[in-house]
Amino acid sequence: TIEKTGFYADIVADTLMIQDCHDPDEAYSIAEALRTGASQVLEMEREDLQVLVIGKAGSQQCDALLVDPMPGGSGLLDQIMARFKEVVKEAIHVTRDCRSNCVRSCIDCLQTFRNSYFHKHLDRTRAADLMTEWGTLATPAHPIPPVLPKTGPTGADMPVNLAEARLKD
Q: What is the structure's pLDDT at 165?
């Protein structure tokens, strides 16, 4: 029997938001440039943060988000905010000084296999120009408190086999 099933995730994720980008090209380009700059400045992989662009109804305008997908946060966004000037400087360097001197973007500056979905939106020159214009001042809107479980699992919530116990660990 085929049954309809829905899945959802009820989580709170740490994000760095760039609000009111003019269009998806601007949003994806800025977010990817910042993520790339952060990976050069901090001890992190580019994929440790995820890029999410959310459009606004009735317009091309959207918000770009760098999302820390780790439950409770990994602390990367706090580190980015603490070293924002360095991250932006490196992001501008990556976008201005592409080794391949590409027209919009390539694997030497902003493109990766995992961001292939939005390659068409990446524009290194536009990102560099905007970051240069905006400067290196970032304003934290909310503190990012750690999210830790109040208690560990008990009874029926405990792992039922070895594989589940490894997954829990």
A: 76
Nearest to 40, CA basis, from 77, 74, 91: 91
Q: Are 58 and 47 in contact (CB under 8 A)?
A: no
What would the DSSP string read from start to end of 75-139?
Answer: SHHHHHHHTHHHHHHHHHHHHHS-TT--SS--TTTT--STTGGGGGG--HHHHHHHHHHH-S---
Strands 50-55 and 62-68, how do they pair? antiparallel
- Per-residue pLDDT, 46: 94
To the nearest 10 degrees (0 to 180), the angle between helices 24-41 and 124-134 is: 80
Q: What is the DSSP string of 2-29?
A: ------------EEEEEEEESSHHHHHH
Chunk the chain into consecutive blocks of 10 residues (it has 169) and report each block's average pLDDT, rounded to whole numbers.
Answer: 80 86 97 97 94 94 93 86 95 96 96 94 97 88 68 70 76
**Residue 64 β-bridge partners:** 18, 53
Cβ 41 vs Cβ 105: under 8 Å: no
For residue 166, what pLDDT is reported? 79
Supply the DSSP symbol for 161: S
